[in-house]
From TrEMBL:
Top-level enzyme category: isomerase
Helicase C-terminal domain segment(s): 401-546
Protein name, UniProt field: DNA 3'-5' helicase
Species of origin: Nocardia yunnanensis
Residue ranges of domain Helicase ATP-binding in the record: 192-346
Amino acid sequence: MTDGPLIVQSDKTLLLEVDHESADAARQAIAPFAELERAPEHVHTYRVTPLALWNARAAGHDAEQVVDALVSFSRYAVPQPLLVDIVDTMARYGRLQLMKHPAHGLVLVSLDRAVLEEILRHKKIQPMLGARIDDDTVIVHPSERGRIKQMLLKVGWPAEDLAGYVDGEAHQIDLDYESSDWHLRDYQELAADSFWAGGSGVVVLPCGAGKTMVGAAAMAKAKATTLILVTNTVAGRQWRRELLARTSLTEDEIGEYSGERKEIRPVTIATYQVITRKTKGEYRHLELFDSRDWGLVIYDEVHLLPAPVFRMTADLQSRRRLGLTATLVREDGREGDVFSLIGPKRYDAPWKDIESQGWIAPADCVEVRVTLTDAERMAYATAEPEERYKLCSTARTKLPVVESILAKHKDAPSLVIGAYLDQLDELGEHLNAPVIQGSTRTKEREELFDAFRRGEIPVLVVSKVANFSIDLPEASVAVQVSGTFGSRQEEAQRLGRLLRPKHDGGQAHFYSVVARDTLDAEYAAHRQRFLAEQGYAYRITDADDLLGPTIG
């Protein structure tokens, strides 16, 4: 027995004592292969899952490192069957390999003949395979490269894809260090190198850490036509501005494929929304994927990838694919599809590591609990179950609380973020602040964001359209009044709006206003799990305690 911060249990759960002096080191050591499940005040619960172990294996971690991390930080002896299971599970990755055969094209090669025999008899995998070349090799239909990886993952034999990639149409792209004084940060360079070495996969970096620059670095390595998929038009135009400022690309080389424009150029930036729009029951715009011989496809905010794009990506396996995200958490549980179709996690930097280097701002996270009035409480208690969350999260009792928070941070550029439009409209009127929501035209959004960046608008009220890929570097306060139920990735993205380093070196303040004794509080606890995994601790305060001296 040692005094380690970790208790490793035979059911594959890990209990981390948060207040232990080695807790941060232990958290970083287990992060590559364990997923946070619960994060109350003193003990966090992680779980070791096969997908997490396979992601770790694909990222270059071996079983010995995983075992060493558990043994080093565990307070008690680690259950021997668990260690054996970890070694066995990680050994399943790559026992089947997709390769390019000089005569037969795409083939599946087995390093373990029994495994090949097993999958040859699987009813759903069988139709994807062609003739058997020898005892260890079978032909795979080229069109099934993505789908067979999905199926092999589901049956517990994740294949390592070594079949290579087409170069695509060559197009000169270089990083431009001369026209503006900048350079790739070490972790950005390492992320781009890790992606390029693997050929496809996902880079996980905190919001504000410069994921766009990783994309630009990957483009400079590929030197080929590139398709960039983004969440919305505003995000796409930010990509365009960054690429024009940081690379050799010119205006004429970058096209926008959105609801407003349909330009296909050597570098084309398209929105998920347009690509997945149906016309007469068909996804007409998916033909964009075939419109050029793309050498690289970049998926921004890959955790939001819509199902139709997954299906199309299954046919893009011969092209290099880079997924960028702040969190691999998907609320629909399709992390396995990201692993199979975009690629495994190639690089992951803990948020607190990047913060300690000064590249993102430190953040103070506060949950402010409000007590509903008797009338609101009764309305909540008697409401239909499906109406309760909206009722408690949009309670008018929150209005003065939001106002008092903003008063405490007078003159600080602030965002008020919510999910319900009628609540946002009411807040906008109450605070005399402009509201940006889904129906706000792109031109108006950009004008308001620009005015906010220049300091002309101190407070913006925004819906979930501002959750992703919006660059508001000076925003230092965010007040969250409602969210998409218990969405962990939304919480991470909202905090991310504040994490660009501040010119004065100050910290960010993230408030979540929550109605106590309701679903609002329950969902808030769930939303905070991902950030807890990254080392952010929420302070809980009562709304009545907020009225204090104004912060200058």
